[in-house]
Amino acid sequence: MTAEPVFIDFAMHHETTVHRYASDILARLEADAAEIIARYPSPRSALLPLLHLVQSEDGYVTPTGIGFCADQLSLTPAEVTAVSTFYSMYRRRETGDYLVGVCTNTLCAVMGGDEILADLSEYLGVEAGGTTADGTITLEHIECNAACDYAPVVMVNWEFFDNQTPRSGRELVDALRGGEQVTPTRGAPLCTFRETARFLAGFADTRAGASDAAVPGDATLAGLRIAREQGMETPAPEASGDASGPDDQRAAAESVADKPAPAPGTTAPPTSGSSETAPDSPVADGPKHPVGDSPEDKEA
Ligand code: FES
């Protein structure tokens, strides 16, 4: 059987022309890039924030931005492209002022995410991935962003809007298109996609509330509360059969550090009814995540 070739459209223009920023823009970006690169022991480690930097300039990662990153970090454009096309936060097409992402992953989908996306698509007159003619909204479906306890969620420029409905989704995009100040469920008032990209590049976010510590909400703590009510506890370390201390564990880890990982299939899944799968297994459910985890955490 002959495998069919798979072609992936990265929506990049395969041009041989080398694009460069105008001299004034280039000087500004070079100063910003120098500040970012100085934070890392190895310049190439600065690639992710530099991609956010060029995205803050162009609204997406353009061939010019890729060339700029490559020049700054002594990488090839192919290397920069390979990284930029791996992470979904780097856009490959022009993006509106507000990137409205509707989570259609499993839990959000069954809780109404699919309906929200379909409704917004009809309301805005664009398919997922498209941008409204006025350039304000780019609509997208997104994968799980670990806010399932507030499903269905919508993210605007990576900020959460919890427990959404088709109606609240319409109100949200109306407010954005009307130029209103919109504040997400957690965090600071929204700014534009390009401004957000600059913050993600590592420049100071001075908006009120931008640096406030995330506080787990009631839905996030529900599992922990139930576990406590029912007297559930995690087993003590010695009860698990592993009585070794931190030094023993470190030594054990170092002893296999250079050994290859086991081949697929050599690790058996838990047997049905075992302590790992039994529904009444005494496993306490702690806080699942710091609510408001930034998408950058999820991305890279
Ligand atoms: S399924 Fe939507 S945030 Fe997890």
From TrEMBL:
Named cofactor requirement(s): [2Fe-2S] cluster
Keywords: 2Fe-2S, Iron, Iron-sulfur, Metal-binding
Top-level taxon in the UniProt lineage: Bacteria
Compositional bias annotation for Basic and acidic residues: 286-300
Comp. bias regions, Low complexity: 264-279
InterPro entries: NuoE_dom (IPR042128), NuoE_N (IPR041921), Thioredoxin-like_sf (IPR036249)
CDD domains given in the database record: TRX_Fd_NuoE
Molecular function terms from GO: 2 iron, 2 sulfur cluster binding; metal ion binding; NADH dehydrogenase activity
Region (Disordered): 233-300
Keyword Ribosomal protein in record: no
Classification via Pfam families: 2Fe-2S_thioredx (PF01257)
NCBIfam families: PRK07539.1-1
Family affiliation: Belongs to the complex I 24 kDa subunit family.
Name the UniProt record assigns to this protein: NADH dehydrogenase subunit E
